[in-house]
Each structure stands twice: as structure tokens, then as C-alpha cells.
Design goal:
two-stranded antiparallel sheet; Immunoglobulin-like; globular; mainly beta; 83 residues; 4-stranded antiparallel β-sheet
Length: 83
């Protein structure tokens, strides 16, 4: 299960906290405003956080979802504001 990324809005780097049950396979997928997947990250079991560097992304609204054992669990929104 993922929680809200922070900071949000953010500039260049954001962190997504998550909990992945032991024995599970997890992935966080990032999508742009058009629904195109722009990144995917394999997750480690336990209570963790994923730090994402967005240096090559444009300012805008993005969504992310967490998959556990191939099942999409939730979608959340994050906002990137480049300075």
C-alpha cells in the first residue's frame, strides 16, 4: 500500500512511502497526464520509501499506481513544478 508522495507539489525529487507485505512482488508505475507510462520501479518488501528523481520530466500533473502481485491497488496524483 502506498501513501501520498511528499513533498507535493515538488521540484526535481519526491518520495513515495509504501508498505509491501513479505513474500509479495510490488511495483510503482508513473503516468503522465495523457496516461502514458513514463516509469516503473520494483519495490522491496517491508516498510520503505521510493525516492524518484524527475530531472528529465516536464512540469505537470502525474499519477502513480502501486501493483502488488500483479493487481493494481490504487492511483494517486502528484504535481511537479519546475523552477
Amino acid at each position: 500500500m502506498s501513501r501520498e508522495n511528499y513533498p507535493n507539489p515538488f521540484n526535481n525529487t519526491t518520495i513515495i512511502p509504501y508498505i509491501l507485505p513479505e513474500g509479495s512482488n510490488g511495483m510503482i508505475r508513473i503516468y503522465d497526464v495523457n496516461g502514458k507510462q513514463i516509469g516503473s520501479y520494483n519495490l522491496m518488501e517491508g516498510i520503505n520509501q521510493l525516492q524518484i528523481s524527475t530531472n528529465t520530466w516536464n512540469s505537470g500533473v502525474y499519477t502513480y499506481s502501486m501493483d502488488i502481485d500483479g493487481m493494481e491497488m490504487e492511483h494517486r496524483k502528484m504535481v511537479l513544478i519546475k523552477e
